Amino acid sequence: MKVKKECLLLEPDLGALFQMAQDSPSDKTVATKKCRHSRTSFTEEQLKILVQAFSQNPYPGYTAKQRLFNTEESRIQIWFQNRRARHGFLERPKKNLGSSKDHASPKEKIQDGRDRRCRTSYSSSQLQTLKNAFTENPYLGIDSREQLAEEIGVPESRVQIWFQNRRSRLRIQRKRGLEEASDQRQNQGQDL
């Protein structure tokens, strides 16, 4: 597996991209580039494993993705998401409430529980670093997230999720604060 920088062309034109690939390196300066995200390149053998796993289960759990081969689980997750999108999977199939599978043995339920990613626990110093970064900018870009992830020693995907959860929590707190203020104003009006 190779990870390489992928650059986003500001004005994507497939014909122009194909032409740029054919032209000499000096002609490639025509398009303006903005590097955004790293891209994973899988080997032929890895792709065969992924395709086979996808044909067996298009929605593998966390541990199933980890067992495929030694690479970051989030990269494999993205591959499965993209594959499902290309093959027209609209959403995860819902479990039938009346099926006998819901009455599985306790051992099977434990097995299902292991497919989830373990909850990430942060040390107080990691939390303080995350909170400080959030105070500075609640919408970090990929480069800043990767730098922050390296600094605190967690995967970038966990930093991204922490920021999403923190923004959601902030919105809820603000909404509750506005509702409480409105209720207080109404109560003061009734006391008069």
Average pLDDT number? 74
Q: How many strands appear in the DSSP assignment?
A: 2
Which residue ranges are poorly predicted, with pLDDT under 50 across at least 5 consecutive positions? 3-21, 24-33, 97-112
Largest sheet: 2 strands, antiparallel
Helix content: 55-70%
Number of discrete helical segments: 8
Backbone structural class:
mainly alpha
Distance between the termini: 72 Å
Question: What sequence of helices (H) and strands (E) makes up the elements?
Answer: EHEHHHHHHH
Strand order of the largest sheet: 1-2
Content of β-strand? 5-15%
Shape: elongated
Task: Give the C-alpha Rg.
Answer: 23 Å
Index terms:
192 residues; mainly alpha; two-stranded antiparallel ribbon; disordered N terminus
Annotate the secondary structure layout.
Layout: E1 2-9, H1 14-22, E2 33-41, H2 44-56, H3 62-68, H4 73-86, H5 106-114, H6 124-136, H7 142-152, H8 156-191
Antiparallel strand pairs: 1-2
Structure description:
- With 192 residues, this protein is mainly α.
- The chain has 8 helices and 2 strands.
- The protein has a two-stranded antiparallel sheet.
- Helix 7 packs across helix 8 (156-191).
- The longest helix is centred in the last third of the chain and has 36 residues, at 156-191.
- Mean pLDDT is 74; it is low at 3-21, 24-33 and 97-112.
